[in-house]
Write a structure and sequence with these properties.
This protein is an alpha/beta fold. It has two domains: 10-221, NAD(P)-binding Rossmann-like Domain (Rossmann fold); 251-434, NAD(P)-binding Rossmann-like Domain (Rossmann fold, 3-Layer(aba) Sandwich). It has helices at 36-45, 57-64, 75-84, 117-126, 146-155, 180-186, 196-206, 219-250, 254-261, 284-291, 297-323, 347-358, 383-389, 400-403, 407-410, 423-428, and strands at residues 10-11, 26-30, 49-53, 88-91, 99-102, 135-138, 167-170, 189-193, 214-218, 328-332, 362-366, 392-395, 414-416. The strands form two sheets. A nine-stranded mixed sheet has the order 1-9-8-7-6-5-2-3-4, with helices on both faces. Strands 11-10-12-13 form a four-stranded parallel sheet, sandwiched between helices. The longest helix is centred in the middle third of the chain and has 32 residues, at 219-250. 47% of the residues are buried. The chain binds nicotinamide-adenine-dinucleotide.
Length: 439
């Protein structure tokens, strides 16, 4: 197997318009979640015949009915359109295609090591359908070496040589939930090929639907670059979270300190929050830590700081409730970040779970982005009810419906606001001094 890695970065172009795809080229997208479904829909809209694959029959049925099972702006209309046109079909079984995308989960195990079983299963599942000339692209965020050590050995039939008969690459996704349809097309992309030819073929494919710059490198460099991006975010958020705990100890307002420090022309501190969640930033740094345990003490420590933060916020809520002898706590938001329905690794959900386990307070929880019958762990309450009945209000996820609540709805309550979202409302309402400081 040729391993002539294309490890030098090349900027190819900043095109305004993607090219048109060769007629009737087929694409298979394995894994139809937050990444796979938008990718499948965009490619179908560009004119490819797309065969979407998911192990969940309910997901397949929903998509074939022209619907979607996740919340992402404008995705419903796009999926309805491409399903109606016959360009996107879904199935629980993989099939033949010119290009095979793997967009399956890459979670961590209980010991924080990478769980690559989904990638391995997806790679195995396409192997009977891989033909000479096919392109296989891993989009899942993966530890360094996954494309070479897991995808190629399991997906490529033994009679084929990578770089000559079939082409295998990694192209990490950098989309922001809520803007996936825009960013999947407009963001710059890193294309890491197992060989130079793999990278080149993959670059040409992405040029068909991506308008951002496309940068080619080796598969391992592409895997590592994506993990470095998310580790950078995690370390910087950990710094802000550490400052919030330090300022609590000093009895000063962390948000004011950060605003003041950021007046320095070369300082740009992020905002603290209740912790770090989601499937990416709270997970991906571990892939680097496990790859190079001796060389990554800072990245590991940042994970520790961010994982500790929900406990600090929990303590603040409990202290605020006990201080006023409150019975009812209102928790606003369960998702890991604003205006998404994604609960994976969410610190907000972790805080609510721990509060419930204490069994000391009546908890009213509002999560407007989660469809109530899809969430069965505990009952959800509508916003008006939470605001009317709670003595203590914790803003755990700063969803749009919560951000601009009028001062009157907060007045007289103890407020825990880890991101400082309501600071201005409280200040302008003249109540800031009488309320507990945010954690
Ligand atoms: N969600 C994001 O914002 C985001 C951003 C950048 C990168 N990523 C990365 O993209 C990858 C996918 O993430 P996601 O958020 O789309 O996950 P997801 O859980 O939303 O979707 C994955 C889908 O794959 C399906 N699946 C699992 N195993 C399968 C198999 N063997 N065959 C077919 N289908 C299978 C699941 O049923 C699920 O529907 C992960 O590596 C993630 O880290 C995600």
């Amino acid at each position: 197997m040729s391993r002539n890695t294309a490890d030098r970065l090349t900027v190819f172009s900043d095109r305004e318009e993607p090219r048109s795809p060769p007629r009737e080229q087929t694409v298979s997208v394995v894994g139809l979640g937050y990444i796979g479904l938008p990718t499948a829909a965009i490619l179908a809209d560009r004119g490819y015949r797309v065969h979407g694959v998911d192990v969940r029959p309910d997901v397949v049925a929903t998509i074939n009915g022209g619907g979607i099972h996740i919340h992402e702006p404008h995705l419903d209309a796009l999926v309805a359109k491409v399903v109606r046109s016959g360009r996107l079909t879904a199935s629980t079984r993989p099939g033949e295609a010119d290009v095979h995308f793997l967009c399956v989960p890459t979670p961590i195990n209980a010991d924080t090591s990478a769980d690559l079983s989904y990638v391995e299963a997806a790679a195995r599942s396409i192997r009977p359908h891989v033909r000479r000339g096919n392109l296989i692209i891993l989009e899942s965020t993966s530890p360094p070496g996954t494309t070479e050590r897991i995808v190629a050995p399991h997906a490529v039939p033994p009679e084929f040589e990578v770089g000559r008969d079939v082409f295998v690459s990694h192209c990490p996704e950098r989309v922001l939930p809520g803007r996936i349809l825009i960013e999947a097309v407009e963001n710059d992309r890193i294309v890491g090929g197992m060989t130079t030819r793999c990278a080149e073929k993959t670059r040409r494919f992405y040029e068909m639907f991506v308008t951002g710059g496309i940068f080619t490198t080796s598969a391992t460099a592409a895997e590592t670059a994506k993990l470095v991006e998310n580790s950078f975010r995690d370390v910087n958020i950990a710094f802000a979270n550490e400052l919030s705990m330090m300022c609590d100890q000093l009895g000063i307002d962390v948000h004011e300190i950060i605003e003041l420090a950021n007046r320095h022309p070369r300082v740009n501190i992020l905002s603290p929050g209740p912790g770090v969640g989601g499937h990416c930033i709270s997970v991906d740094p571990w892939f680097l830590v496990h790859a190079c345990p001796e060389q990554t003490p800072l990245i590991r420590q940042a994970r520790g700081v961010n994982n500790h933060k929900p406990h600090v916020v929990l303590r603040r809520i409990v202290d605020a409730a006990r201080a006023r002898g409150a019975r009812t706590i209102g928790c606003l938001g369960l998702a890991y970040k604003a205006d998404v329905d994604d609960l994976r690794e969410s610190p907000s959900l972790e805080i609510v779970r721990e509060l419930r386990a204490m069994d000391e307070f009546e908890l009213l929880v509002c999560e407007p982005y989660v469809v109530a019958n899809r969430f069965t762990e505990f009952p959800l309450t509508d916003l008006d009810d939470v605001l009317r009945r709670s003595d203590v209000l914790a803003l755990l996820t700063d969803h749009a419906p919560f951000r601009n609540l009028p001062f009157e709805t907060l007045q007289g309550k103890s407020v825990v606001d880890p991101r400082g979202t309501w600071r201005r409302t409280l200040r302008e309402g003249g109540a800031a001094k009488s309320l507990p400081r945010a954690a």
